[in-house]
C-alpha cells in the first residue's frame, strides 16, 4: 500500500479540510499565477477604482490576455485550452480581488468568446477570437433587455431580413463591457420573419452605424466594472453575421451555463477574502480585555463561515471534475450557483458583523464584496430561477409560469 504523504501538523485557517490535497501541482501553479497577476494588477488600486466607479478595463484586458486568462478554457485561436478546474481556480482568485474584475474576464471569455467559439462560423472565429484572447479586442454579450431579464424568450429586440442583409432594432441593458466593446454578440427575435426561426445570435462590430452604447453610472454594486445600455437603431448587418446553425434559447442559455460555472467558483473568492479579513480582525481587535476571537459567539461565526466556504469549494471542484470528464447538465450548474452565491453572500454579511462599524469602511474589503455579491446573486440567473431549475429536475414539473 502506498504510504500517504505526511500531514501538516497545523491546520491552514483557509483550508482546514486540506482541499489542496485534491489539486494537482499544475492546478496549484495556475492558481498561484492568477493570484499573483490579479494582485499585482489590481490589489493596490481596486478599492479606489470601486470608490471612483472607474476601472481601466482595456488596460487590464491586455494584461490578462498576456497571462492567457481570456478564453483560457477554450481551444485554438490563441486560447490557452486549459481545464474547467483551472478556469474555476482562476475565477476564485480574480473574484478574491473584486467581482468586477472576474466579470471582465468571464464576460469576455465565457460569454462573448464562448458564443463565437461554440456557434460562430469559421470566419467569425478567425476574425475575432485571436484578438479577443490577446485582450486587444473587447467583447460583450447582449441578451438582457430593460423589460426582459429572467424571461429571454419574450425579448423585443427584432431582426428582420432586407434582401441578403439583417436589420436589428432594440435595446439591451446591464451589459458588462458594453461601452468599451469592439464586438457585441446580440441575440434577437426573428419570429416575425417569414420562415422565422425564433431567437438568433449575431456578431456585430460596434462601429456599425446605428449601434450605440451608453455607460450606466450611479451603481452601488460592481462599481469596478463597465456596465452599459445598448441601443440598436435599424442596424444593418450582412447575412453572414448571424450564427449559422443555432436557433432558439439553446444558444444564449448554453453560453450562460458557461458563465454560471465560472461564477459558482468565483463568488467563493469574495467569500474567502471577507472571511480572512474577519478572522484577522477578530484576533487583532480587543474588547472587554480580550481579542474578539476569544468569544464563543465570534468563534461560532468563524466556524460556520469556514465550513460553508469549504463545502462550496468541494462542490465547485466536484462540478469542475465532472465538466472536464463527462460535462455538466444545466441543473448541476444551477445547484452550484444557487448554493455557492447564497452562501458567499451570507459569509460576507456575517464577516461584516465581526468588524462592526469598521465593516462598512472602504479601508476593509468586506462591504465592497458584499455589495458586489448582491449583483452576482441575481445576474446570470436569479437564485429563484435556479431554484426552479432544480425544482423541475427534482419533480419533472416546470413551475416557471
UniProtKB/TrEMBL annotation:
Enzyme class: oxidoreductase
Family statement: Belongs to the acyl-CoA dehydrogenase family.
Molecular-function annotations in GO: fatty-acyl-CoA binding; flavin adenine dinucleotide binding; glutaryl-CoA dehydrogenase activity
GO biological process, one term: fatty acid beta-oxidation using acyl-CoA dehydrogenase
Signal peptide positions (record): none
Cofactor(s) it depends on: FAD
Gene that produces this protein: GCDH
Source superkingdom: Bacteria
Name of the protein in its database record: Glutaryl-CoA dehydrogenase, mitochondrial
Acyl-CoA dehydrogenase/oxidase N-terminal domain ranges (all copies): 24-136
Lineage, highest ranks first: Bacteria, Bacillati, Actinomycetota, Actinomycetes, Micrococcales
UniProt entry keywords in alphabetical sequence: FAD, Flavoprotein, Oxidoreductase, Transit peptide
InterPro entries according to UniProt: Acyl-CoA_Oxase/DH_mid-dom (IPR006091), Acyl-CoA_Oxase/DH_mid-dom_sf (IPR046373), AcylCo_DH-like_C (IPR036250), AcylCo_DH/oxidase_C (IPR009075), AcylCoA_DH/ox_N (IPR013786), AcylCoA_DH/ox_N_sf (IPR037069), AcylCoA_DH/oxidase_NM_dom_sf (IPR009100), Glutaryl-CoA_DH_mitochondrial (IPR052033)
Domain Acyl-CoA oxidase/dehydrogenase middle: 140-235
Pfam families for the chain: Acyl-CoA_dh_1, Acyl-CoA_dh_M, Acyl-CoA_dh_N
Amino acid at each position: 500500500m502506498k504510504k500517504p504523504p505526511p500531514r501538516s501538523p497545523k491546520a491552514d485557517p483557509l483550508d482546514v479540510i486540506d482541499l489542496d490535497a485534491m489539486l494537482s501541482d499544475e492546478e496549484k501553479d495556475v492558481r498561484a499565477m492568477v493570484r499573483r497577476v490579479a494582485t499585482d494588477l489590481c490589489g493596490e488600486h481596486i478599492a479606489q477604482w470601486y470608490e471612483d466607479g472607474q476601472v481601466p478595463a482595456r488596460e487590464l484586458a491586455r494584461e490578462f490576455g498576456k497571462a492567457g486568462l481570456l478564453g483560457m478554457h477554450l481551444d485554438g485561436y490563441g486560447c490557452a485550452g486549459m481545464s474547467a478546474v483551472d478556469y474555476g481556480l482562476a475565477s476564485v482568485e480574480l473574484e478574491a480581488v473584486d467581482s468586477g474584475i472576474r466579470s471582465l474576464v468571464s464576460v469576455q471569455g465565457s460569454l462573448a468568446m464562448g458564443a463565437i467559439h461554440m456557434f460562430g462560423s469559421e470566419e467569425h472565429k478567425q476574425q475575432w477570437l485571436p484578438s479577443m484572447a490577446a485582450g486587444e479586442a473587447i467583447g460583450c454579450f447582449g441578451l438582457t433587455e430593460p423589460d426582459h431579464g429572467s424571461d429571454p424568450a419574450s425579448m423585443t429586440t427584432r431582426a428582420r431580413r432586407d434582401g441578403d442583409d439583417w436589420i436589428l432594432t432594440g435595446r439591451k441593458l446591464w451589459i458588462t463591457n458594453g461601452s468599451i466593446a469592439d464586438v457585441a454578440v446580440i441575440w434577437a427575435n426573428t419570429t416575425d420573419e417569414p420562415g422565422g426561426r425564433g431567437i438568433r445570435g449575431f456578431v456585430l462590430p460596434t462601429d456599425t452605424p446605428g449601434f450605440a452604447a451608453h455607460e450606466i453610472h450611479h451603481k452601488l454594486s460592481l462599481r469596478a466594472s463597465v456596465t452599459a445600455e445598448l441601443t440598436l437603431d435599424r442596424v444593418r448587418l450582412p447575412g453572414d453575421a448571424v450564427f449559422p446553425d443555432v436557433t432558439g434559447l439553446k444558444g444564449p442559455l448554453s453560453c450562460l451555463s458557461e458563465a454560471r460555472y465560472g461564477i459558482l467558483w468565483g463568488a467563493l473568492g469574495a467569500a474567502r477574502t471577507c472571511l480572512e479579513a474577519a478572522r484577522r480582525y477578530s484576533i487583532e481587535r480587543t474588547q472587554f480585555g480580550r481579542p474578539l476571537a476569544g468569544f464563543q459567539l465570534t468563534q461560532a461565526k468563524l466556524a460556520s463561515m469556514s465550513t460553508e466556504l469549504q463545502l462550496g469549494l468541494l462542490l465547485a471542484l466536484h462540478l469542475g471534475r465532472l465538466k472536464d470528464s463527462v460535462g455538466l447538465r444545466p441543473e448541476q450548474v444551477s445547484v452550484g450557483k444557487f448554493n455557492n452565491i447564497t452562501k458567499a453572500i451570507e459569509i460576507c454579511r456575517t464577516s461584516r458583523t465581526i468588524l462592526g462599524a469598521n465593516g462598512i469602511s472602504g479601508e476593509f474589503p468586506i462591504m465592497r464584496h458584499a455589495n458586489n455579491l448582491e449583483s452576482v446573486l441575481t445576474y446570470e440567473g436569479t437564485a429563484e430561477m435556479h431554484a426552479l431549475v432544480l425544482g423541475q429536475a427534482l419533480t419533472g414539473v416546470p413551475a416557471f409560469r
